[in-house]
Design brief:
By secondary structure, the protein is α/β, with parallel strands linked by helices. 49% of the residues lie in helices and 11% in strands. It has 16 helices and eight strands. It is globular.
Length: 387
C-alpha cells in the first residue's frame, strides 16, 4: 500500500516545526525576512525523513506531490554552504566528516550530511552503513545524517541528492555535506552540485603520473591528504606532487588559475589525520632536531581548524568575485538538463510503441541479425513517429 504524504504538513513541519495553525506561505515569507529557524525537534526530523522519502520515490502518483514540495520549499533553499567530499574507498571520508561535523557544531553550525552508498549490481540492495561510522555525529541534535543508495546512478551520488539538499536548507541547516561513494577518476558529479569540492587522498597512493591524470583531480577545489600521521614523509611527498599537478591543471583549462591573482581561489592541498582530528605540518630543519618542536609543528595548528579556515577563505573569495553565484547558476541549469534527460529515458521505456517493438528488436540484436546501434535508432524513431 502506498504511503500517504501530506505535503503542506511536511513543509510546515520542516520550516516551522509543525505550526499547523498558520498559513504555510505566510510562514515561509515571514521567516525569510527575520531569518529565524524553528522546528528543530523530533517533528521536524520526521518531516525531513518523510520529505526525502517522497522525493526518492519512483511511484508515479508521488511525482506531483514531490514537485509541489520542492516548489514550496524553494524560497527557503540556497542559504547553506554546500560541501562535497569524495575519495577512494577507505580514504577516511566518514571519519573525516564526523570530526568536521562535530567541529562545526561546536562553533554553532547545524550540519546535514547526505551519504551515498553503492547499490549491488546483482541484488540491487545497499548496506547504507556510513551512518554507523559516525556514532557521535548521528545522535547529535544539531546534525542530521541521511544515507541513500546510489541505485545504479553514475557519478558517485544518488539520483535525488540535489533535491534532498534543498530540504535540509529549508530546514535551517547552514552546512550541507555530500559524501560520495568510494570513487575512481571519473566520478565527478558531486562537483556539479556543491559550492566546494574536496578530494581526499592517501599517502603512497600513486606516483607523479597518477597525480596529473585528468578527471576528478582537476575539478578539486581543495585536496586533503588524510591519514598523514601514519607516514608523515609519504604524506609530504603526496602533498607536493598533488600541489604541482593542481598548478599544472591551472595552466590548461583554467586560465583564471594560471596566475597568482589574490582575488581568485587557487586550489591547495592540506595534510591531516581525521582519526586524531589534527593537522600534519612538515617540520622545519631546525624543528627536526627537537622531538618536542617537531611534535608541536604537527599539532592542531593544521587540522580541522586549518581546513575550515581554507573553506571560509574560498567562500569569501568566490562570493566577492561572483564565482560562487555563477557556479550555482551553472549547476541549476545542469540540474534541469539532467532531469530532462532522465525524464526522456523514462518516457522512452514507457512508450507503448517501444514496449511493443522492444522484444523483437532485442531478439534480433541477440541473434546477431541487427546491430545494437541500428536497433536503438529504430526504437527512437518509433517515439518520433508516434509524436
Amino acid at each position: 500500500m502506498s504511503e500517504v504524504f501530506d505535503v503542506a504538513a511536511l513543509c510546515d513541519a520542516i520550516v516551522e516545526g509543525g505550526n499547523s495553525g498558520a498559513n504555510l506561505r505566510a510562514d515561509l515569507e515571514a521567516n525569510m525576512g527575520n531569518g529565524s529557524v524553528a522546528g528543530r525537534g523530533v517533528k521536524q526530523r520526521r518531516a525531513i525523513a518523510k520529505a526525502i522519502t517522497l522525493l526518492e520515490s519512483t511511484r508515479s502518483e508521488h511525482r506531483l506531490l514531490a514537485d509541489t514540495l520542492l516548489n514550496t520549499l524553494l524560497p527557503r533553499a540556497g542559504r547553506a554552504f554546500r560541501l562535497g567530499i569524495s575519495g577512494v574507498p577507505g580514504v577516511g571520508k566518514s571519519t573525516f566528516i564526523e570530526a568536521l561535523g562535530l567541529f562545526l557544531i561546536a562553533q554553532g553550525h547545524r550540519v546535514a550530511v547526505l551519504t551515498v552508498d553503492p547499490s549491488s549490481s546483482l541484488s540491487g540492495g545497499s548496506i547504507l552503513g556510513d551512518k554507523t561510522r559516525m556514532e557521535r555525529l548521528s545522535v547529535h541534535p544539531s546534525a542530521y545524517i541521511r544515507p541513500s543508495p546510489s541505485s545504479g546512478n553514475l557519478g558517485g551520488v544518488a539520483e535525488k541528492t540535489r533535491e534532498s539538499m534543498m530540504v535540509f536548507e529549508a530546514a535551517g541547516y547552514d552546512v550541507v555535506i555530500v559524501e560520495t561513494v568510494g570513487v575512481g577518476q571519473s566520478e565527478t558529479a558531486v562537483s556539479s552540485m556543491t559550492d566546494l569540492f574536496v578530494l581526499m587522498q592517501l599517502p603512497n597512493a600513486g606516483d607523479e603520473l597518477q597525480a596529473i591524470k585528468r578527471g576528478v583531480m582537476e575539478l578539486a577545489d581543495l585536496v586533503v591528504v588524510n591519514k598523514a600521521d601514519i607516514d608523515p614523509d609519504a604524506a609530504t611527498r603526496a602533498q607536493s606532487q598533488i600541489l604541482s599537478s593542481l598548478r599544472l591543471f591551472g595552466m590548461h583549462g583554467h586560465p583564471d588559475r594560471a596566475h597568482h591573482d589574490q582575488s581568485i581561489w587557487q586550489p591547495t592541498v592540506l595534510q591531516l589525520s581525521a582519526l586524531k582530528a589534527i593537522g600534519m605540518k612538515p617540520p622545519t630543519c631546525a624543528a627536526a632536531t627537537d622531538a618536542s618542536a617537531a611534535a608541536s609543528e604537527r599539532n592542531v595548528a593544521g587540522g580541522l581548524g586549518a581546513f575550515w579556515a581554507a573553506v571560509q577563505t574560498f567562500r569569501d573569495l568566490q562570493t566577492q568575485n561572483g564565482q560562487l553565484a555563477a557556479r550555482r547558476i551553472q549547476q541549476t541549469q545542469a540540474w534541469m538538463w539532467e532531469r530532462i534527460e532522465a525524464g526522456l529515458k523514462s518516457r522512452f521505456r514507457a512508450h507503448p510503441a517501444v514496449q511493443a517493438a522492444l522484444p523483437a528488436a532485442l531478439d534480433a540484436v541477440l541473434a546477431g541479425r541487427l546491430a545494437a546501434s541500428v536497433a536503438a535508432r529504430q526504437l527512437l524513431e518509433l517515439t518520433i513517429i508516434q509524436e
